């Protein structure tokens, strides 16, 4: 299990043999005993974090538990990116037949002491305002005034996040969502086979929107997804509205017909084409009749 401070990027890692709430809660309690209780804890939608036990745990310690948008791991990108780096380190130790647990603690020690690429300061300094001693040699430097460093770190952090957001938006051609409650939409679904469609064919109606988190429902279920996973159905393609529209048109455009007593007397003359027809040259040796 990985817990990472979004401000300082300081990571905590605990080894679990089960993903149940009873296994996760004591490990989190140990982290909070070392670092303190956070104001907000953001997590995914895994089984331990949706349980009643975890809800009571959050209420008991007094922190706000906020779950990210389902099926949208980018909302917890800092932890997801660290998990990739950590997994690579553990796989390397396993392939080289080393003790992966010992390598895990070595990796954490070096990671916490290395300046982060975004903040330009190490996670340990950002969180504890002191350098972490490692086996790497360090020069003797004058005492650091951490107030100035923290102000610079916050300014650089905001600038880097703005640049990363601009890059990600340009790469994915992101645009502001036009979804609003009452709209009829389709929801993106996981691809199960080659014949499955990208979107669920059953339409949903948008019920609520909070930032990029959208909740929609139909007669079968209610889903919460990121706004990019919805597709608006144009009004002319909405089956329910089309049925209502066709019913109204049938009532207004088909008035009752009135019998015309002279209708039987009206006969339409047979029309024939007036163009001149000629016999093809290949039929000159034969006797043909043109009707």
Structural commentary:
There is one protein chain. This protein has helices at 21-35, 52-61, 77-95, 100-113, 123-128, 146-171, 239-253, and strands spanning 2-4, 11-13, 40-43, 64-67, 184-187, 204-210, 213-217, 222-226, 230-232. By secondary structure, it is of the alpha+beta class. Among the domains are: 2-113, Nucleotidyltransferase, domain 5 (2-Layer Sandwich), CATH 3.30.420.10; 183-235. Strands 8-7-6-5-9 form a five-stranded antiparallel sheet, with no helix packed on it. The radius of gyration is 35 Å and the shape is elongated. The model has no long low-confidence stretch (mean pLDDT 82). Residues 248-264 have a biased composition (Polar residues). GO terms for molecular function: nucleic acid binding. It holds the Pfam family rve. Residues 154-183, 225-291 are annotated as: Disordered.
What is the C-level CATH assignment of the domain at 2-113?
Answer: Alpha Beta
Low-confidence spans: pLDDT under 50, at least 5 residues?
Answer: none
Give the helix level as a range of percent.
25-40%
**Which percent range describes the beta-strand content?**
5-15%
Average pLDDT confidence is 82
* Coarse morphology: elongated
The total count of strands amounts to: 9
Order of helices and strands: EEHEHEHHHHEEEEEH
| Quaternary structure classification | single chain
Biased composition (Basic and acidic residues): 154-176, 238-247
GO molecular function, one term: nucleic acid binding
Pfam family, one: rve
Region (Disordered): 154-183, 225-291
């Amino acid at each position: 299990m990985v817990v990472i401070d979004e401000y300082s990027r300081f990571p905590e890692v605990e080894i679990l043999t089960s993903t149940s709430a009873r296994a996760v809660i004591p490990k989190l309690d140990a982290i909070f005993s070392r670092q303190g209780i956070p104001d907000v804890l953001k997590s995914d939608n895994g089984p331990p974090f949706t349980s009643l036990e975890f809800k009571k745990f959050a209420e008991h310690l007094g922190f706000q538990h906020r779950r990210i948008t389902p099926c949208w791991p980018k909302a917890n990108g800092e932890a997801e990116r660290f998990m990739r780096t950590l997994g690579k380190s553990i796989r390397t130790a396993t392939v080289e037949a080393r003790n992966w647990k010992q390598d895990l603690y070595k990796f954490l020690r070096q990671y916490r002491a290395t300046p982060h690429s975004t903040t330009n300061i190490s996670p340990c300094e950002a969180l504890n305002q002191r350098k972490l001693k490692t086996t790497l040699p360090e020069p003797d430097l004058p005492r650091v005034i951490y107030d100035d460093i923290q102000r610079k770190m916050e300014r650089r952090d905001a600038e880097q996040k703005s640049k990363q957001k601009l890059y990600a938006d340009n790469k994915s051609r992101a645009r502001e969502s036009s979804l609003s409650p009452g709209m009829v939409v389709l929801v993106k679904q996981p691809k199960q086979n080659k014949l499955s469609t990208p979107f669920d064919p059953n339409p949903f109606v948008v019920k609520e929107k909070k930032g990029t988190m959208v909740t929609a429902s139909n007669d079968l279920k209610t889903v919460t997804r990121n706004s990019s996973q919805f597709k608006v159905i144009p009004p002319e393609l909405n089956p329910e509205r089309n049925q209502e529209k066709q019913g109204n048109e049938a009532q207004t455009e088909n008035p009752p017909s009135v019998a015309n007593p002279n209708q039987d007397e009206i006969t339409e003359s047979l029309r024939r084409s007036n163009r001149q027809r000629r016999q093809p040259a290949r039929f000159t040796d034969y006797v043909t009749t043109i009707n």
